[in-house]
Structure formats: C-alpha cells, structure tokens
Amino acid sequence: MKTIMISIRLLTAMTIITGIIYPFLILVLGSTFFPLKASGSLIEFNGNIRGSELIAQNFDNIAYFTSRPSASNYDPLPSTGSNLGPTSHRLKNNIDSIKKSYTSFNKLVWNIQIPADALFSSGSGLDPHISLENALLQVQRISDARRFNEAKREQLIKLTYGILEKPFAGFLGEPVINVLKLNIELDKL
Amino acid sequence: MEPKDFIQPAALLFLIALFTPILGRYLFGVFEGNLKMPKIISDFERKLFRFCGINPGIGMNWRKYLFSLLVFNFAGIVFLYVIQLVQGWLPLNPRGFGAVNHDLAFNTAVSFVTNTNWQAYAGETTLSYAVQMAGLTVQNFLSAATGIAVILALARGITSRLSDNLGNFWTDIIRAVLYVLLPGSVIISLLLLSQGVIQNLNPYLNVTTLQGMPQTIPMGPAASQIAIKMLGTNGGGFFNTNSAHPFENPTPLSNFIEMFCILIIPAALTYTYGLKVGSRKEGWVIFGVMMFLLVAGFSVSLYSELSFNPALNSTVLLEGKEMRFGIVNSVLFSTITTGVSCGAVNAMHSSLSPLAGMVAMINIMLGEIIFGGVGSGMYGMLIFVIITVFIAGLMVGRTPEYLGKKIEALEIKMAVIAILIQSAAILILTAAASVLNPGLSSVANPGPHGFSEILYAFSSAAGNNGSAFAGLNANTPFYNILTGLAMLVGRYGVIIPVMVIAGSLVGKNISPSGAGTFMTNNFIFAVLLTGVILIVGALTFFPALCLGPIAEHILMKQGILF
C-alpha cells in the first residue's frame, strides 16, 4: 500500500517536473534565443508566410525547381515515406515512370543519368532539399519557361551554386540545395 | 566513397570514447552519493523525498526493489492509458483530437513505459500537445531512469558481500532524472533548437505555398521531447517519420548530436560500472566488445547499402532517405539506433537494402547490448557475461566465478531465461502472425520483405526498440495487442530475472582472486564474450533471417522483384 502511494506521488511530481515545467522552460528558452527557429523556420515573401524553409512544397509548375518525390504528396499530415522495399515491383515502376516524366518535363535526352534524389522519394515525404546535379538539370527548362535570355540563365546557374549548402565543418552531411529558398530567389530574379 | 564518409563515423565514435570516462565518472559520483550537488538541487531533492513519503536512506532487498519498480511502472501505464482516453477534454489540443482507441492507447502506454516507444500512431495527427508533454515526455524520462535503476541494483549485487541491500529504488529514479536526464535534456534541447527543431504551442499553420497551393504545417513542443527521446534511448518521435522529419532533425549537425545522445549514456555506464567494480578495465572490455560489434554491423550495412541493386538497376538507393543526411549518416543512424535500444530513425528502415535491414534486425535480436538502452544495454550485456563465464568454467572444469562471486545454478537459469524469453516472444509471435489472417493482412510489401516486416515488428517490440519496417500497418487491434504484450514480456521478462540474479549475488561472499581465477578484464575474455553473443544470436535467429532478409538479398542479386 505504501509503495502504491509513493508511486502515485512520485509519478505526480515527475509529471509536473518533466511533463510541464521542463517543456515550458524549453519553450521560454526557445522563444528567447531562437524565436524564428522554434516557431518553424517560416519564410515570408511579399508580406505573406509562404511555408517553412524545412518543409518541402509541391512544385509541379514548369517555372519552378521541383522538390524530391514525396510518398505523402507533400502533405505534412502525417509525414510518411513509401516504405517500399529494395525488391519492390511498385518501387521499380515508380522509378521508371518518374524517370520518364523527369526526362520529358525537363526536355532532356532519353538516356541521361538522372540523380538518385530526383527518382527516389524521401523518408519524411517532406525533404526540403535536392542535389546540385538535380537542380542544374532543371535550369534550362526553367529558363525557357521564364523566357530568360542567356545572361539571365547564367545568373540562375550562379544563383544555384550560390545557394548550395556545404557539409557542416566540411565533413558532416551532404551538399544540398533548399528548393523553396532557391525558388524564392528565382522569383526575385 | 569520399574521405568525409569515413570521417563522420570516426568523429562520432571518437567523441563517444572521449566522453565515456567523463560522463562515466559523473554518473558514478551521482549514484554513489558522494558528489557534492549545488544546495538548491539537494534542497529540492529533499523536499521531493518528503512530498513522496520516501526515506532515501533505507535499502531494499531484491524483492522490495523489484516490487517498487513494477508498481511504479504499472502506475505509469495506467496514467498514460487514461490520459490518452481523456485527451479530448484536456487543454493544449489545437486540432481537437478526440480519445485514442483502446487498443492503440494500451499499445502506446505500454510502449512508452517499457522504453520501447514503438509507435502505431502518427503523432501529428493523433495526439495533442498536452498528451505528448505530460504523458509521453514524462515516461521518456521515467523509463530511462528505470533502466538505470536496474543496472545500479545489479552492480550493487555484484560488488556488495553477504548483504541483501540493493539500494533504494526511489532514490535511484529521482537521482537519474534530476541529476542526469533532466539537465542533459535541457542542454540538448537548446542545441537542437539552434538547429531548427521546433518548440511552440501554436496551432497548426495553414499556408499558401509559393506555387499557390494550400499546405498545413504541424507545430508543437517537439524539442523538449526529442532531447529526452535521444538521451533516454527512447526513440518515440514527435512526428510520424521520427528523426527523418525536418522539424525533428533539421541539419546534419542536429543529426550528429542526436546520434551522440543515443550512444553517450549507455557508453558512459560501462565506465561507471568499471569504477563500481573497482577495475576500470572491466568496463573497458565491455565497451570494447560493444564498439567492435557496432563497427562490424555498420561496415556490413554500409557495404550492402553501397553495392549495386540489380532488381532496381541502381547503386544509390535514396528511397526513404533524406538528402541532408545521405547514405552514410542514414546507415550509421540505423546501426546505432538498433544496437542501442533507441528506435528513432532518420531513414525508413523498410527501404534499406536487405543486409542493412538485417543488421538492424540482428542488433535488436542480440538483445540490444551494442551499448544498448540506458541501463538495459549494460544489464543485458552482463547476462551474456554470466553465460560466458559459465561456459569458460565448463571448459576448464572449475566453478564459474565472476568478480569473486560464485555463479551457480540459479544465476545461470535466470540468465538463460532472460535470453530465451525475448527470443521466444519474437519467434513465436512472428510465426503466429505469419500464418494468421489478421497478421498477414497488414503486410505492405509482398515476398520475403513482407515476412521481414513481421519479424522486424516483433523483434522491435520484444527487444523494446521501437523502430519498424513501417510499411506494416501496425495500428490494428491484432498488432496493437500482440506487440503490446511482446513489449511487456521483453521488458519485464528480462528485468525480473536480472533482479533475481542481483538478489542472489548480493548475499554471496567475494572470494579473493588467485592464480586459477578466470580473468574477465582481458582480451581473451572479450573474444570469448563476442563469440558467445554471436553464437547465441545466430543459432536462435538464423533460420528466421534466412526466410526474410537473406532470401531477399539473394533474390535481389538475381534481379527478382515482388
């Protein structure tokens, strides 16, 4: 009986300490030191919030860089990967059809090597990044759609290189490009 | 492969080795009670003791210690179950989520109290902020503290002589939370916040995307939960895709921090153990065996992940992986999270190449002793140490001894029960689900991969890991109840025998070591221990693995799809 009473009291105390005080402390620290990040790294453009820099968006418009394929179709509720296995027929079919549509959408030659990040869907379905190679393959199509002249196209390529995020401290992670940030810069061009 | 692909894992493991003695010594000080704490904390601790009616000085025998543990954990399960059912009436519920289904609530309650953190639900579409904070976060702390308490009791059992005192369970829990997990989580939360992990109570945000489409972005107090999810080797994500979600793990640096957090307390506990038994070498030998198994598993995974997949005609398999982590960090994470009983994932394990998925499974099946969960990894490893000492004793024909304590029939029986009960739960439940309709109808991928989904699910549940081949639709009454039971069996089916062993050892005298003593702090013992772990694991699970990942690997190499 005594053990039960102690259990209930300790559980109550711990719920208050670790379940209420602790998260609220982090809430205060977060909104003091990292207010923008704690509230979701939201991106404002022309006075409106246009999403989070960390959450991928669907770009199927010919004038924008496209995000990685998403098993949840870029819906964050809930986030999900495809969970298709390495011997999955469905995965193979998905890749083949993405290969075809990517090639024709970007007006590429049929046998071009397409970067893996453009073919395979991400783990979260919300991966905000693509590879540099993937971005560069889309430059021509976007330049055509936006009727860019040669100088502007060069500018876009420069912009793409400029926005590339290098691995942290030179060795952590992969070099990536944030699609939403790049597209916003593209709109400003 | 580039140089950085080697530097990343090397840097992580180096930092772990570096911090192991530092944190290990701190933990020793905390739990031996000889570390001077700031007055404000010790005052607070005293008030907490008084509020709960705890007399911290009173030692407990193994029965009392175990009974307190079981009652305390049971109270946790009941509370977590109820709070999910009344979710609709609680505040901080901007999406207006209603009561969780009974079977799912049972599964989740058991899952978080047993340090499994298997998730049959999607956080962002099921649970309110209040339940995530006051329900799940709390058990993230307490289940980790429970693991620490058990290893402390066992270590005291090994080192005290002719006594029955294993320490005070309540004191151990409170110290583990107040002095270790809570301050650690505050620091880690801040680091994660600096990287972009969110922490707010705002309603979900409706935005119009740059291209002009609607999107709803989930919010919530994530950072505080993720810090302890990693540090306590819990692994239960705030969001459905866990540490693959950009809000939970936004950058390569946050990923590095999260991997460090998974490993550091289990690693440090080997050093603490060495200090406790009076020979740091004992700790380092165990650390060495764990490190060896980790590196071996990682190497196999990485090799598998980087080799050509003829079935998909691709070498770089990015399905289920995030760009910012790439292949190396995804595979490193999958090896660590399964070796350690964490279960957080930064890539979808179901989409890993067959052998990388198999390494994840084997890591769990071996009992998660490759550093293992907070506390649970260490006591799991000591079970294997006892078995090894016994086998070595048989070979030379002497009564087996461990650190001067005679290992007799009771200890061996309990050690074998602890190992067998987990294995039996995995294999029997997998077999049942593989032939029953409600088991099979949840499977997503056909072929051997489908069997792997089931095998992984029950391994993860019984091993208290929590990661998954998530194609499997586990949110059905069948899986919710069976995986829930597997978690209970896997957790307490090990803790109870361990406490019996602790209780038996504490009453024995310590015989002085002599020329004939079998040493457990040298290289030969490390090799023996590794051998025993691998042989026990292989003999138990090889047939099942043949039907799943091994079959899939061979068929994949022939280019066969399902």
Structure write-up:
The complex is a heterodimer of chains A (189) and B (562). Chain A has 189 residues and is mainly α. Chain A folds into two domains: 1-39, no CATH class; 56-188, no CATH class. Chain A has seven helices and four strands, in the order H-H-E-E-H-H-E-H-H-E-H. In chain A, strand 1 (42-45) and strand 2 form a beta hairpin. The longest helix of chain A has 32 residues, at 2-33. Chain A is extended and about 80 Å long. Chain B has a domain at 374-557. Chain B has helices spanning 3-32, 39-52, 62-85, 102-113, 123-126, 129-159, 169-195, 222-231, 252-276, 280-306, 326-339, 354-365, 376-396, 409-435, 437-440, 448-462, 477-506, 523-557, and strands spanning 205-208, 214-217, 401-402, 405-406. In chain B, the strands form two sheets. In chain B, strands 1-2 form a two-stranded antiparallel sheet. A two-stranded antiparallel ribbon of chain B has the order 3-4. The model of chain B has no long low-confidence stretch (mean pLDDT 95).
Describe the secondary structure blueprint for this structure.
The complex is a heterodimer of chains A (about 190) and B (about 550).
Chain A lengths: L1 H32 L1 H4 L3 E4 L2 E5 L36 H17 L10 H4 L9 E2 L1 H14 L4 H14 L13 E2 H10 L1
Antiparallel strand pairs in A: 1-2, 3-4
Chain B lengths: L2 H30 L6 H14 L9 H24 L16 H12 L9 H4 L2 H31 L9 H27 L9 E4 L5 E4 L4 H10 L20 H25 L3 H27 L19 H14 L14 H12 L10 H21 L4 E2 L2 E2 L2 H27 L1 H4 L7 H15 L14 H30 L16 H35 L5
Antiparallel strand pairs in B: 1-2, 3-4
Helix pairs in contact in B: 1-9, 3-4, 3-6, 3-17, 4-17, 6-7, 6-8, 6-17, 7-8, 7-9, 9-10, 9-11, 10-11, 10-12, 10-18, 11-12, 12-16, 12-18, 13-14, 13-18, 14-16, 14-17, 16-17, 16-18
